[in-house]
Each structure stands twice: as C-alpha cells, then as structure tokens.
Design goal:
Radius of gyration: 42 Å
Number of helices: 9
Helix content: 55-70%
Number of domains: 3
Strand content: 5-15%
Number of strands: 8
Length: 369
C-alpha cells in the first residue's frame, strides 16, 4: 500500500523530482570541482532538504499573498522575506553547529556566527527565494494563459452558436413568410422544440408536450351543439395538472379520480375543463392536508362530476367572476340535458368549495363517430 502511494505521488510530481535531482547533481559537482572541497552525504542531505523546503514554503506564501484582494498586499513581501531569512538561519545554525562538532563531517572547528557565515546564509536563502519567486510567476503565467485560452475557446463557441442561432432565425423567418402561421405548422414547430429539449431539459419538454396537446384540443373548435368524448376532456385535465406540477416543482396537492369506463361517453366540451381551471384559479391547490379532487363516476346510466378544493382566502375578491362562470356552465348544461341534469356549487363549514354535476345518460354512444 505504501509503495502504491509512493508511486502515485511520484507520478504526480515526477517533473519536480527530476529537476531537483539534476540541480543537485550539477551544484555538487560544480562546487566540488571549483573549490576542491567535498562535503559529507549528511551535510548535503541536510542543506538540500532545508533549501528545497524554503523554496516550496516561499512559493506557498507568495501565492497566498498574491491571492489576497487588498491594496497594499505587495508590501507584505518585505516582512515575509525577512521572516524567512531569520527562520532559515535559526534552523540552519544549530544543526550546522552540531554537525561541526561531530566526527567525520569535514569540519575542523566548531561553527560560529560570523559575518561571513551570515552573508553566506543570507545569500543562499535569497538564491532559493529568487528561484521560488520565478517558479510562482511561471505557474501564474501558465494558469493565466490556460484561463485566456479557455475564454478564447468559449468566446469562439459562443460566436459559432450565435451565428448558428442567427442563421436559424433567418431561416425561420423565411420559412415563416413561406408557410404562414397555421395549426399544422405550429404543432410541427412545438414537436421539433420538444424533441430538441427532451434530452437537455426534460421538464421543459414535458411542459411543451402538455401545452401542445391542450392547444391542439382547443383548436378543434367543436360546434356549440356538439358533444365530445369525455375521455378527451380527462386527457386535457391531466395535461393541465402536469403543467401546474412542472411550474410549481410538484408542490400542488391534486387528485384526479375516474370510476367507470368512459369509452364512448360524450359530454359538452370544455365544461369539466373550465371547472378544473377555476380550481387552479380560485382554490388553494397546495394545501398540505386537504387535496383538491376531481372525481368522475360513471355507471352507464348516470354520470357524476365532482370537484372539491379548499378556498383560497387571498383570492376571495374573485368569487363574483367565479359565480358568473358557473352560471354559464349551468346554461350550457341546460341546453344539452334540459331536465335530466343537476348542477350544484357551495362552500361547506370546512372552507371547502364543491361543484357537482349529475346527468342521466340515455344513450352514451349517441353522436360518436
């Protein structure tokens, strides 16, 4: 395990290891040849550990200072370098003194703090501090270059995307002039947007699909005397519920309950859908304990449509317009069913609003193509 860790560390820092190895070999041999003096292995090991530690300590401190965001940060380098010089000699001298009085170190006399020693130590520390400073600025320069290259690439991508969007816009404008606006063109466009957004933004794609289906249903424009399949109205209610769930991050408390097979059953268009829209408009559909409910019960002889929702106290001023809409629904039901229906709407003591439509069904298949 330790060997694996060491290998991983070397793979991450191999360039540092190689550069330091070359530097140490170069310095040891150049110094030895120039001065005809060769130190002991222990002497070399201690001094290069100390110098390399100073190199990385100065690099770390310099990057921290440069990262600060205040006006006079450059002045911090003076006390920082003075601190490093003092710390360098405070660490070096005691160990060098101990080494000078031990056997086989190459030193004849014990080490003393002299002017020559201080100058030599300061010069050696500044030598590695200088290298370290250059290393930091090299790193910052490479980092800045990578950042600029990244921005240039991003700007290039944005330019290409902008040009593509402009081309698409011109093409769309030309297509618009050629095809004009019609339902077929509109739904094809919505379908294209849905397919394009499905992978990148699935929630937006779902909203587009639900809206497209509702618009398609609304544009059918049945005649005032026509009945439509009730199952289609139920599908539109599902689309409407899905849209509100997407818009509110699924925070609504809403149930749609269907009891009975609605196949073949026809009903006046947009009545049930209007009641559901009124629930969203006037009701509290996000109540935590009281769900809003749309329930459809059909047993081949009768049809019951029930809506239940908590009253939204904030929207009480809209109750009058709400009643006007309900009265219009009552008139439409009367035109279709005469005396074979009942329509009630009221608020109970728990502040819940009820609507209930009951219709006697003579022939559920009547008018079905």
């Amino acid at each position: 395990m330790n060997i694996l860790k060491l290998k991983n560390w070397y793979n991450q820092n191999d360039i540092h290891v190689k550069v330091w190895a070359l530097f140490i070999i170069y310095e040891v041999f150049i110094t030895g040849i120039a001065t005809s003096w060769w130190g002991t292995p222990g002497n070399y090991i201690f001094h290069y550990i100390l110098n390399i530690s100073l190199f990385y300590f100065h690099a770390f401190g310099t990057r921290k200072i440069l990262s600060r965001n205040f006006k006079f940060k450059n002045w911090l380098f003076i006390p920082f370098v003075l601190f490093e010089l003092v710390a360098y000699m405070a660490i070096a001298f005691p160990i060098e003194y101990l080494m000078s009085i031990t056997i086989s170190t190459g030193f004849k006399d014990p080490m003393k703090v002299t002017e020559v020693y201080v100058l030599r130590s300061v010069w050696r520390a500044l030598y590695f501090i200088g290298f370290s400073t250059g290393y930091v600025f090299l790193l910052n320069s490479l980092q800045e270059r990578r950042r600029v290259q990244k921005l240039e690439r991003q700007n290039l991508v944005n330019t290409i995307e902008k040009q593509a969007l402009e081309n698409d816009l011109v093409q769309s404008q030309n297509n618009f002039l050629r095809s004009q606006i019609n339902p077929h063109f509109l739904f094809n466009t919505l379908n294209f947007i849905y397919n394009d957004a499905r992978k990148k933004a699935p929630l937006a794609a779902d909203a587009i699909m639900n809206l497209s289906e509702m618009m398609r249903y609304a544009l059918k424009r049945p005649e005032a005397s026509e009945l439509v399949p009730l199952s289609e109205e139920v599908e539109q209610i599902e689309h409407l519920i899905n849209l509100h769930k997407l818009r509110t991050a699924n925070s609504i408390n809403f149930d749609l309950i269907v009891n009975g097979d609605l196949f073949g059953l026809r009903f006046p268009p947009l009545i049930l859908l209007t009641l559901v829209e009124n629930m969203f408009k006037h009701g509290n559909i996000a109540h935590s304990t009281q769900p809003s409910i749309v329930q459809i019960d059909y047993d081949r002889a009768s049809l019951t449509l029930t809506t239940i929702n908590m009253v939204n106290e904030v929207k009480k001023k809209e109750v009058e317009s709400h009643h006007v809409g309900l009265e219009n629904i009552d008139k439409r039901l009367n035109n279709f069913y005469k005396d074979k229906y009942s329509f009630k709407f009221y608020k109970d003591p728990l502040n819940r609003y009820f609507t209930e439509i009951k219709v006697e069904i003579d022939n559920p298949m009547a008018g079905l193509n």
